[in-house]
């Protein structure tokens, strides 16, 4: 059997349109495909591979747990889940953890908890959820409706009700929307899929204050920003604004599927026995790998280096732009960065993505106008420089047609 791109069209549902490249091996921030061609990875599996490929700590955790016990279901608990939960609560505002398999599932749990909390503590009228245009919170029907991109939620029939949106960083619009009937506000503390948009600090602080005023829960979706991506363990810590509920996934497992919702004891008690669950959520294998990833990232050395590496990226992208004049700005924080195309290249982010692949670099887009970079948090300075050199070749290819 030939496992090539053509086989995808024969056997896979056509909701994706993957590249012709099929990677078969990775080490650190380098990846090799079926043909033996090498790529530098600035994509990180969409901000997932926080320690690159085949990091020894993750490989050892997987092998070690793989020879003990893989799965139990939530009829019992397990040691890796308890250890990981303790470490997460020790390192954050939270007291309690719920484990799932993905960011969407963590967000689904957060939204259900917020509705249940409002029903138990306030009234059956307190159901409104406010989120932000261009936000992204997952692909379940609830989370995709809360996400502020109608293109992802239209075309599937009636949507979950009482969900409202306004523009990110538009405080006046938000203040006009929130009321005593609002049960929760869900936001990314840095919009990822929507274009790498940082929040105004005053906006975030005002959202927190208005949530308090109206007894609404503030949910931070840190699926993309969490576990070191911005240079803090979680982005809320760098903003100095604490949510009531936080969701985390992607980098949490370093490439192994796991997600989590974390919150306080007071809020958590409203997910009583039987109100929510997950067959695989918190399984020993995922939690063992996630524990190794969490331990490795949650150190001053790694987190401080993320901030230093951000500057290397910014300096390199500035040098490229001085030559070719294709970007209007570089947005983001830490190693969640977006190069925004200027008016001459509007809508052509995918062209830069394809050109990058052709020059041995794995990159991403965030919408049609932003080239996104989410590399390993421990990528070497040498690989950053080498990857930027390949990106310069890609930019030259696009500029020269």
From TrEMBL:
The modification N6-(pyridoxal phosphate)lysine is found at residue 250. GO terms for biological process: L-arginine biosynthetic process. GO terms for cellular component: cytoplasm. Pathway: Amino-acid biosynthesis; L-arginine biosynthesis; N(2)-acetyl-L-ornithine from L-glutamate: step 4/4. May also have succinyldiaminopimelate aminotransferase activity, thus carrying out the corresponding step in lysine biosynthesis. Belongs to the class-III pyridoxal-phosphate-dependent aminotransferase family. ArgD subfamily. This is Acetylornithine aminotransferase. It comes from Pseudoalteromonas aurantia.
